Amino acid sequence: MSLFRSEQMEFYNLVIPRESAWDVMNTLGYFDSVHIIDHDATLPQINRPFSNYVKRCDDVLQKIEQIDDEMRNFKIEKKYCPDVIDLLKKRNGSHKQFEELEQDICKVADDLEHQQQTLTSLQEKKNTIRENLEVLRNAVAFQNEDSEEASLLGFQKMVGVILKEDELRFKRIIFRITKGNIHVEIMDIQEQFIQQDRKSVQKCVFMLFYPCGDLTQKKIQRVIESFSNNKFDIPTSSEQQAQRITMLENQLNEADQLLHLTITQINKRLQDLSEIKHNCSWIEEMRILVTKEKYLYMNLNMLNMTNSVFHGQIWLPQGQDQKIQQALRNLHGNDKQLPSGQIQEQQIQSTPPTYYKLNSFTYPFQEIVNTYGIPRYKEINPGLSTIITFPFLVGVMFGDVGHGLLLFVCGLYLTTEEAKKSIFSGLVPMRYMILLIGFFACYNGLIYNDFLSISLNLFGSCYNLVDDEYQIKEDCVYKFGIDPAWGSSTNQLTFMNSFKMKLAVIIGVTHMTFGIILKGFNTLNFNNYTDFFCEFIPQFLLLTCSFGYMDFLLFLKWCTKFEDTKDAPSVITTMIDMVLRPFDVPEKPLFESGEQQRFIQLILLTIIILCIPIMLITKPLIFNLNKKNHPYQQIPSQVPDDDANPEQLQNDMQKDQSQPHSKVCIQQHNQHDDIGELIVHQSIETIEFVLGSVSNTASYLRLWALSLAHSQLAEVFFSMTLASHIGEGGFFGTIGSIVQFPGFALATFGVLMCMDLMECFLHALRLQWVEFQSKFYKADGYLFKAYSFTNIKSNQQDD
Amino acid sequence: MDLCVFGVDDGYAEAIIRGLRASFLSEAQYQQMKNCASIPELKSFLEETDYQNCLQADNPQIPTSILRQRLKKKLADEFEYIEAQSTGTLTKYLFHLRCRFMIDNVVNMIEGLKNKIDIEILLSNIDPLGWFPEIKNIKVLEGDDYSSLYRDVLIDTPIGVYFMKFLEESIENLHENRTLNDIQNLFREMKPEYIRTSLKKMWLEDFYSFCESELMATSQEVLLELLKFEADFKTIQVIYNSIGNRDLNTAAKIITTRKQLCPTIGNLYPDCEKLYLQAMTLDTLREAVKGCDNYRDLLKDAPDPLKREEFNVQTKTLDDIMYDDECRRYALAFDGQGSYGVFYAYLKLKEQEIRNIIWLAEMISRKLAKNHPGWKKIIIPFSHLGK
Predict the structure, then answer these.
(1) Are A46 and B156 within 8 A, CB to CB?
(2) Among A263, A280, A284, A398, which residue carries the largest CB count within 10 Å?
């Protein structure tokens, strides 16, 4: 029953004293069944009582993210938590736990940051030493060559390091300042420098030679300063230079060692963090615990705090209240000092949420329905029938034993554990739907007797081929589906079209009638007898008397044996004549006598014509009469007034409590005060239904069209690739089929298994949403959102 | 015709801008900001808006200067992204837009160096929108030798052209037999503000002619209109600020300076030129511009510049009035489809938004009473549309 109609909901007041707020919320989180109503959805998060806690959680999460980034940088593996609830139960603490967590994580993060800083400063130091060393080496190398002469000529030189990318600009500016009176030597440093932001940059040593002159020197000095901050002085004697170089080299070594040490330290620390405790890495464990805290406070923020007591309103599915009350009573165990939270049942004030207990089998089908709209509370859920009708409709269009089997196998694979880890993991939630589609495609393929465009002779054909002509065997009926002999006959296409078309209409009318019957059940369930008599009955009659009768004629025609097929009356003509020439006796009756048929058709036509005004005017009339009888009674509004005075509301609630619980009845939305509006609405609905019954029936012809397209595509691919070679046989035929097979396989996979399946899926979706659900489905409910720790996901699932 | 082909090259960039349009703070959000009691509160409020990511790493007690820098960085990042997505004319156009910020940066640097402020501080304060690699080399500037600054550094930069023109013009204005000393004197006395105004004037004229010659008709229609108004506002501002200015003591000097600083485009030029150049009081200025649009109404509320000393926070200055009017015009630029106007308007309006936030942050950090008139001195982009 749980999927047919949504769960019975009960409305409770939740009262929690501030001291035990955390504990109560912690307890409730393990129940999967509390829907907390936000007391004021417009209130910004920042103005809520626990916003600073949420903020703190965010900060801690950010720190965790930083640590995580660092771990990724150091390529440290970590284990995600497989079972969140299990972990939370193991690590269940008190509200003080968060403070501990926060301290722990902050400490770790700070330590790490500290180490990072050490690392960067070391890096910096190393860079400076290296620059120095490079400059010195280059200077020495240059000096040895021909600088003796240069200095004799009165040239001065300047050395430094700049970024490689600045080279051109540097040269240009220097050139301009000295008016070209300078020699610039640039030497690249091979190894790259690692900057603070961990990007590596290329640098180069420059060496300037210019004639003496204070003015230019000052200027050049300024330019160099604007390009880099480090200054280098080069000792004059070669002895000192050598000394300096060895010293710098030593320093560089030291710095390198220190750097290495620090990196190892950081690495070790991070390794510690990824250590597995409670079945997953420490860092992941922390992430989940903090996320839980945040989630808890976010939900606590939905409650209204007055005088250190939290008031909130919650929805519970029926039967959960005992468990929760029990749990709340046991909350503090032996310690009776601390007050616990309480829940009190209340009169339902607003529309309850729609809640279904779903499992992995029903999930995808309910999802199809929910995508269109959430069912109204207690309305018949189309999701239940969808489980079979939807895959069946796809199967009708996708009908082929071979393709169906392939799909079925795919579905089977998806149900295995392995599929969850493969690249198809996205399809895993849909696995049962795929399985069912595969099954029904197979079933319909058997009916069409179509295996990759070839008919199968499973039970022995009832036709004998005599002199190129098929002759039917006496008293023989093919056991299941279409006789394979049709597959090779010349009028195969005409026959299959006629069959599939009729099938489509029969399925369509059945589907829609089913939808209307569901509407009838809905009206009965909500005690809405006006709708039952003024909408359901006429709608049902209209559809059955028109297209239902057509279906009947189809079956009748199938069951009748005609000596000459030319004598067989056309169902379409009969239907048209029934409306256009109702009083004429049909020329080719399907019934035993034309008179009889005319009589029946007249009755049906009368019913149809009578139904329309009933649908059109009775409902507004009844409302009008009701209104006149009770001129002062206002129609109660369904949605409670948001601006209502809370005190008054409470008084009302208390009053309501004293009264015996009346059965909740959700009335139809069509309670318009204005009679004119109602008439317009009703006439639109009526016109929509009458026209819809024609156009929707026609819409079901897509079942035929898509199935035709599928079989024709399959046939084309087969005949274009394999058929001729198989027909040829022998050695060349074998080689030919081997060569052509990849083409056949690819076309089958790409066009039929992917594209055509998608197309069939979409068309079935349309039939489900538009043709079927429009008959009864209101879809104006809202979903039950459980406050539950199961909503906390470990990161892995997000990836 | 424009609409048919606009999307080929620039559709994506325009779409991004229109998406970013949603990031403007609403009036309700401004109201909430005004209710913030402290800077940390303001910061956490901003973290719930589009500015979330650029503020997250900072500590709650963020100084306004850093706040401004962060907000501008965000705008610059967005702009850089759009620039990277643009091609052809749009790239050139967007680059022109950035030149304005480059001028500001260069002049700020010069000003800072003159006042002996450390270059690191100056570099950290530059507007990221107007960043270019040569900017740190402005340090080369020695004394007041702008010509060598131009020759050595700025010549390669996009704003080198304007700078050259500026130098040429200022030297030309000297008497016939000028000496090197005269030129140096001229530079020494030159105020950075003067450099800024004249550079911006040249930029505006250049940008105007760019729009006129290279853009498609729809963009032209929107942009030329906006630029005309901007030029007019510049003119009015120059005249207004020069009224009663002590540095300009003779009438002849006022007129030459004005002539140099007023853009030679816009609705006022050249019809009213003679009148406004001669205007020595607010009333005559009002009279001078009455022929155009609603300028007279704008000036009606402007306080008299001769009583400059009496101005305080409450005074709605000419700048405020003009920002208000500009905001309205830029918001309207979002109406049309297929024009480059939106990029310009977006930049201008975001600047206004940042100004607003910074203003409010200042107000909050000074803990001014809620009935202080300063709270009302923000101009909310797109708030005109509702009325």
Answers:
(1) no
(2) A398
